[in-house]
Design goal:
The structure holds 2 protein chains of 2 kinds. By secondary structure, chain A is mainly alpha-helical. Chain A has one domain. Helices cover 82% and strands 0% of the residues of chain A. The mean pLDDT of chain A is 92. Chain B is mostly beta strands. Chain B has a domain of 84 residues: Thrombin, subunit H. In chain B, 6% of the residues lie in helices and 40% in strands. Chain B is built from 2 helices and 23 strands. In chain B, strands 1-23-22-21 form a 4-stranded antiparallel beta sheet, with no helix packed on it. Chain B has a 4-stranded antiparallel beta sheet with strand order 5-6-7-8, with no helix packed on it. Chain B has a 4-stranded antiparallel beta sheet with strand order 9-10-11-12, with no helix packed on it. The chains are: A mainly alpha, B mainly beta.
């Protein structure tokens, strides 16, 4: 597979991983708030709600993540090539910054104060940003393989 | 043959009913900036609030006094925040008290406030703040702001959860997501349900609400009805009882705007079920009961104006029970902010936009 389709695949997988983790985190954050109010939360209810959010909530988050990643991941890849010793730190920060920016923009444009419930407090925002970091790290990992494969072998260059 | 005859008779009866319900919508007043609430003065004039912070007087002929009422407290105006309800004192003819609900504070620290003043010669005098919902919060969403008087002349004021603070609707220590009950001077009635409960806000009448923008006391049935906005789905019509918990956000028939589950539960022990819920949302914005003479078939029915559905929901009542709904006035294709049963028997509507109007619904003939 040439590098462009592989990069695109890496991007899609990064968005999917960030979305999966963010959706699970958002659900647990929400259910924890209800539990604190006294709602029973048996495992079956928790799992069912998590699954419902993967269908109901995840598409919204995927759009936000994709929007943030479109800018952040190419920039991170470019920066990582120039600062290879900071490669993983760059992707961690880029993923987190991408989600933070997307959330901030969504909150500024949406009629409600905070679009995503988990984003209403610092811990929740950090959790969603960490999901972005995980997605960006995956992109960095798959992107690195693309770069190595694209390098010509010594025999081919003769 | 008998069956055919019965079908024909039924069709004729339905047609006769439809004719009897025919109506005409007249524009009484135009040029109002997001009108929010309408009140009828004893002399035939009307008071109308504009969310941007103005209280206006409409003459009997529908003409709008170009000068807003002076002396109105300054409201915090942004998004859903601003001047909201206007309500006359039960003894207005004698004391001229006018009650106003509005958002107070700043973008970073605001909530709902209740004040009153005497309407004397086109201005408010002796203005006094009666109640300020606490805590203040950031943002400009979910203020509630509707009011009604109970037979003992105490006043109930609806509030909202501020959107970001939905769990606080279950916290009896504050006013977020509550309906509060006050004496006309703002003092707390001694028989409020949480009076004497340690750590509870004494003003609370009911709790577990999201954003209550309709409340009406049915004096004949001695019932207090309210409706509230759900999130995406789960708008509710409730029968309010003192001290009861209406469940938000522990139970709801709606989901978040992002599609996320707000709660896995639609019912839990100790939490009140709505009389009905609207899913998908209609966004109910005010509630009244028709007690006029112009539409006998509407007598005793509840009417809820809606923003999202751009309609008025007629909720039929039969022997004190809900008996179906009818969607009215969709042909206007406008957000309806307020619906009132006028003293002349007509139904009055406020349209919610920068060129808002007062509309009067009368029989077609």
């Amino acid at each position: 597979m040439s590098s462009k389709p592989r990069l695109l695949l890496a991007f899609v997988l990064a968005v999917l991983l960030a979305t999966l983790l963010a959706s699970i985190f958002q659900t647990q954050s929400n259910l924890a708030a209800l539990q604190a109010l006294g709602a029973p939360m048996p495992l079956g209810v928790r799992l069912a709600t998590t699954c419902l959010d993967l269908f109901g909530f995840a598409p919204t988050f995927a759009l936000l993540a994709a929007f943030g990643f479109v800018f952040a991941l190419p920039l991170a890849a470019w920066s990582a090539r120039r600062l290879p010793s900071l490669r993983w730190a760059i992707f961690v920060l880029a993923g987190a910054a991408a989600i933070w920016t997307a959330l901030a923009l969504a909150n500024a444009l949406a009629p409600m104060p905070t679009l995503i419930a988990a984003d209403r407090n610092l811990f929740g925002t950090l959790g969603l940003m960490a999901s972005g970091s995980a997605g960006a790290l995956l992109f960095g990992l798959l992107g690195r393989r693309v770069r190595y494969r694209a390098q010509p072998t010594p025999s081919a260059s003769l | 043959m008998l069956r055919t005859t019965l079908v024909l008779l039924g069709t004729l009866a339905a047609s006769a009913l439809a004719l009897a319900q025919d109506y005409r919508i007249e524009t009484v007043t135009a040029g109002l900036d997001h009108p929010w609430s309408l009140a009828f003065l004893p002399d035939g004039r009307m008071l109308v609030t504009e969310r941007v912070g103005r209280l206006r007087i409409i003459a009997k002929d529908g003409s709008l006094d170009p000068e807003p009422v002076a002396g109105v407290p300054e409201a915090f105006v942004a998004a859903q925040a601003g001047l909201m309800e206007v309500l006359l004192d039960p003894d207005f003819a004698g004391n001229q008290w006018v009650y106003l609900s509005y958002a107070y504070g700043t973008e970073q620290a605001n909530n709902t406030r209740l004040a009153r003043g005497r309407l004397v010669e086109g201005r408010l005098q002796d203005v006094e703040v009666l109640f300020s919902a606490l805590p203040t919060k950031a943002g400009a969403a979910h203020y509630g702001g509707r009011m009604a008087f109970l037979p003992d002349q105490t006043l109930v004021l609806t509030l909202g959860d501020g959107f970001d603070w939905r769990e606080q609707a279950q916290n009896p220590a504050n006013h977020l997501g509550k309906i509060v009950r006050l004496h006309r001077d703002g003092s707390v009635p001694a028989d409020n349900p949480l009076v004497g409960q340690a750590g509870a806000a004494a003003e609370i009448y009911s709790l577990g609400h999201r954003n209550v923008q309709g409340i009406y006391y049915d004096a004949r049935l001695q019932r207090l009805y309210s409706h509230e906005h759900g999130p995406r789905g789960g708008d509710e019509l409730n029968l309010i009882e003192p001290g009861h918990n209406y469940g938000w956000p522990l139970i709801t028939y709606g989901v978040d705007y992002t599609g996320a589950q707000i709660s896995p539960y639609t019912e839990l022990p100790g939490l009140q079920q709505p009389l009905l819920h609207w899913t998908p949302s209609v966004a109910p914005s005010s509630l009244t009961q028709y007690r006029g003479a112009l539409f006998p078939e509407w007598q005793g029915d509840l009417f809820a104006s809606t923003l999202a559905e751009r309609s008025v929901r007629r909720i039929r009542m039969l022997d004190g029970k809900l008996a179906g709904e009818e969607v009215l006035f969709e042909e206007l294709d406008e957000r309806i902010r307020d619906v009132r049963s006028g003293p002349d028997g007509a139904l009055y509507l406020l349209t919610d936009n920068a060129e808002g109007r007062v509309l009067r619904v009368v029989p077609a003939d």
